[in-house]
Recover the amino acids of this structure.
């Protein structure tokens, strides 16, 4: 099927995320600080990754699960000398705070929501390290590692699946840091720009492609899980799925030969069989077709598998 002509040109922010560097104000993301002598032990028992082995300046990605193994939220965790900082989606800020607070009983742990005190500025794109260098800032080399920049902290992670960094700054100085990054060559990118690039890169987001509906292995985000760390909330279900190798669907990136992105919930076929369900889709100006994330039934999940969406052809990319 021929792809319909593009009616909306690529924006400057979209091009910067793909080709250079863009900044995004992500200050609405939740920030939770955990202090106290038992903070590592508690977080280790509450998340899917190995928190107790982290050293100051290191971090990781992890899920919080309920007792049924369903995903309550995801976090980027940073280890500092005297605290952990949990960075999470705006939608899960309160939910995860209350979830943690419920399990603090006799532990020497204090949690504080510091979202309004700390602004988050993302710098993402292939030239993001160069932009930080021009701004006089360090660019941590290892994933989830951090570096100090005056009273700011720079963390090596991203929201779009590209090379990127989060800059955590005092909220009162957010505009100042944005001016520094802009002067170094970063340009603003919109949420729509970021979403399109994120889907092009196959990067899922909690609240959109990952929800309580899904199990850990179905998301494909196994870098969030340490399978030999010991017990944690929801671990029994994760281990049962792993040992039995029984998942019936998995999150995959698709490319669809249409300029009209399908809505969430739309089904794709393989012959007469239901093969996949769209969770997010957007038109890609660079690829001149729609990119999507979908939960694909495992018999149809191999890269290169051809699916159909009405008259449009779709391919599983990976």
């Amino acid at each position: 099927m021929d792809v319909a002509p593009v009616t909306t040109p690529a924006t400057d922010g979209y091009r910067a995320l793909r080709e250079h560097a863009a900044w995004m104000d992500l200050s609405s993301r939740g920030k939770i600080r955990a202090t106290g002598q038992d903070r590592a032990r508690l977080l280790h028992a509450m998340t899917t990754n190995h928190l107790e082995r982290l050293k100051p300046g290191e971090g990781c990605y992890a899920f919080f699960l309920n007792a049924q193994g369903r995903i309550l939220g995801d976090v980027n965790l940073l280890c500092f000398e005297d605290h952990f900082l949990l960075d999470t989606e705006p939608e899960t800020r309160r939910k995860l705070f209350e979830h943690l607070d419920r399990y603090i009983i006799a532990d020497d742990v204090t949690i504080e929501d510091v979202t309004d005190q700390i602004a988050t500025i993302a710098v993402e794109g292939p030239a993001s390290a160069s932009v930080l260098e021009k701004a006089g800032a360090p660019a941590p080399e290892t994933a989830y590692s951090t570096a100090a920049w005056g009273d700011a902290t720079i963390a090596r992670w991203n929201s779009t699946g590209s090379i990127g960094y989060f800059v955590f700054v005092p909220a009162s100085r957010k505009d100042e840091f944005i001016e520094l990054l802009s002067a170094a060559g970063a340009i603003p990118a919109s949420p729509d720009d970021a979403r399109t690039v994120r889907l092009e890169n196959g990067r899922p987001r909690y609240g959109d492609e990952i929800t309580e509906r899904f199990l850990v292995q179905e998301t494909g985000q196994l870098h969030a899980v340490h399978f030999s760390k010991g017990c944690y909330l929801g671990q029994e279900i994760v281990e049962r799925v792993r040992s039995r190798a029984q998942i019936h669907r998995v999150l995959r990136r698709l490319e669809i030969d249409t300029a009209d992105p399908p809505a969430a919930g739309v089904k794709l076929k393989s012959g007469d069989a239901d093969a996949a369900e769209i969770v997010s889709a957007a038109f890609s100006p660079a690829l001149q077709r729609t990119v999507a994330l979908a939960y694909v039934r495992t018999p149809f999940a191999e890269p290169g598998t051809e699916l159909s969406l009405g008259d449009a052809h779709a391919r599983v990319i990976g």
